[in-house]
Amino acid sequence: MNIISDRLREIFELLLEAYGPQHWWPAESPLEVLVGAVLNQNTNWQGVEKAMASLKRHNLLNPHKLQAMPTEDLARLIKPAGYYNLKARRLKNLIEFVTETYSGDLEIMKQAKTGRLRKELLAVNGVGPETADSILLYALQKAVFVVDTYTYRVMSRHGLVGEEVSYDELQELFTQHLPLEMKLFNEYHALLVRVGKLHCQRKPRCKGCPLEPLLT
Ligand code: SF4
């Protein structure tokens, strides 16, 4: 257990030293993070930013306005994020859940227990573990580790998990071997995304990667 904790710490320190704090999530409000978590599915951040700007221009970053809006109109506004018809439906599902269960108030939502919130979010059609955990960590500031493709690549390529690892097992690698701290999980995930984009791509570019010294 200590060897794994030490290795996870080492990875974090090397990435932080190389890249510095990532200041995630670049959003103005928890609702923006929640909306961004859906828009961000299978796309790049530039597309998300354009879609978000379009929602802001129309003064729509409000749960009640979003809920009242016809899905087709919402789809048109978020077109730059890609898969816009699907994402508009997913966003409507999520907003409906937030308005009906928490009166559209993310501050009230924050008061609920993490386990309950995760279960509720996963029950929303179109919300998978990565989206649910991004909302929990970045919008609701819960100590939940977000797992994505980059997490998988870095951890499996450094021998910390096997290739067949599940989402939950990969998440447990962090939650069982690191302190349950929201700020640490926020920064760690952001740093893994950074190294994943710059180096740990489908074909790894290990030369010059901050984690190259850890390869055996
Ligand atoms: S690119 Fe290479 S050194 Fe960098 S994280 Fe991936 S496997 Fe490790």
Topology at a glance:
Layout (H helix, E strand, L loop, with lengths): L1 H18 L10 H10 L5 H13 L5 H6 L2 H7 L6 H19 L3 H5 L3 H9 L6 H11 L9 H9 L9 H9 L6 H17 L18
Helix pairs in contact: 1-12, 2-3, 2-9, 5-6, 8-9, 10-12
The structure holds iron/sulfur cluster (SF4).
Order of helices and strands: HHHHHHHHHHHH
Distance between the termini: 20 Å
Radius of gyration, in angstroms, nearest whole number: 18 Å
Strand content: under 5%
Main sheet record: none
Shape: globular
Helix and strand composition category: mainly alpha
Query: Which parts are unreliable, with pLDDT below 50 for 5 consecutive residues or more?
Result: none
Q: How many runs of DSSP E, i.e. beta strands? A: 0
Mean pLDDT: 95
Q: Helical residue percent?
A: 55-70%
Number of helices: 12
Q: Which small molecules are bound?
A: iron/sulfur cluster
Characterise this structure.
Helix 2 packs antiparallel against helix 9 and helix 5 packs across helix 6. This protein has twelve helices and no strands. The chain is mainly α. The radius of gyration is 18 Å and the shape is globular. Helices cover 62% and strands 0% of the residues. The structure holds iron/sulfur cluster. The site of iron/sulfur cluster has 13 residues, from helix 10.
